[in-house]
Amino acid sequence: MKNRTIIGIVCIVLAAIVTFGAAPLVNKMSEGKTEIIRMAQDVKQGFIITESDIEKVQVGSFNLPANVIKDKATVVGKYATTDLKAGDYLMGSKLNNEADSADSVFRLLDGTKQAVSISIASFAAGLSGKLENGDVVSIIVTSTEKNEAEMPAALRYVKVITTTTASGTDRDQITPNENETNELPSTVTLLVNMEQAKLLAQYEVKGKIHISLVYRGDAETAQKFLDAQDEYLKKNNTEETEVITHE
Q1: 121 and 151 both lie in a single domain
Q2: pLDDT at 246
Q3: What is the pLDDT of residue 47?
Q4: Which end of the chain has less neighbouring CB within 10 Å, N or C?
Q5: Mean pLDDT in each 10-residue stretch from start to end of the chain (247 residues)?
Q6: Are residue 173 and residue 55 in the same domain, yes or no?
Q7: Distance (Å, whole) CA 138 – CA 206
Q8: What are the C-alpha distances in Å from 166 to residues 3, 91, 102, 173, 211?
Q9: Residue 19 has what pLDDT?
């Protein structure tokens, strides 16, 4: 009986400590405020963020992500890497220094690179409809006459500008149907130089093109793949291919 009394007293003391000690501390932390940048209106993936799209607001600092953006100068002029909604907090992963929408990329073409579209011959050939703007892909060509597949070295690392449905809707403009399904793309538009564009046009006629995903992620890493491809093209004026023959 004595032990129960002691345990009861200890519990009461601990409860008092939590009530009058820890609870006020938690309340004080939760009442702390900090200024952050959040979206004031919706911005689609790939579109540039302007000052009118964002707002600076005070929010509770308790449990706030450490990487939430607090300076509007790091947001204005950047491109959205995903669809942003009004009220969204902003982190670096949601922003990009480069354009990601098809229209934005087209407006930046300066003659050194071109945009060319190729047909997606089948569901599997187009990575099962999972290609996204900015993906780095490799082109694989299967011959309709020969029992082999070619992996052109000149098309090892290519950037996807967008995919487009048969009705002409680009990847970043697709909205789900009433049954939450999307119309599948029928073409993919790639960012290439003139020689690569010629190769793609030839392969479109000669055989069937399959697309293999190489990288999807931050723009800096993706650019390393594309720079490696450009370096190869500078050093090699003739097409080299890796041939895979089916037994």
Answers
A1: yes
A2: 46
A3: 78
A4: C
A5: 68 68 56 86 84 91 85 89 88 79 81 94 92 94 81 95 91 70 89 94 90 90 93 76 49
A6: no
A7: 18
A8: 79, 35, 16, 13, 18
A9: 65
- Distance between CA 69 and CA 143 in Å, rounded? 51
Q: Are residues 82 and 128 in the same domain?
A: no
Q: Is 104 inside a domain boundary?
A: no
What would the two tokens of residue 6 be? Answer: 């002691």
- 204-to-76, 143, 199 alpha-carbon distances in Å: 41, 10, 9
Place of tokens 């209106």: 41
Paired strand residues for 191: 115, 159
**What are the beta bridge partners of residue 89?**
38
Task: Give me the pLDDT at residue 183, please.
Answer: 84
Residue 58 and residue 154 in one domain: no
Do 76 and 27 belong together in one domain? Answer: no
pTM for the model stands at 0.63
How would you write the chain as a 3-class SS string? CHHHHHHHHHHHHHHHHHHHHHHHHHHHHHHCEEEEEEECCCECCCCECCHHHEEEEEEECCCCCCCECCCHHHCCCCEECCCECCCCECEHHHEECCCCCHHHHHHHCCCCCEEEEEECCCCCCCHHHCCCCCCEEEEEEEECCCCEEEEEHHHCCEEEEEEEECCCCEHHHCCCCCCCCCCCEEEEEEEECHHHHHHHHHHHHHEEEEEEEEECCCHHHHHHHHHHHHHHHHHCCCCCEEEEECC
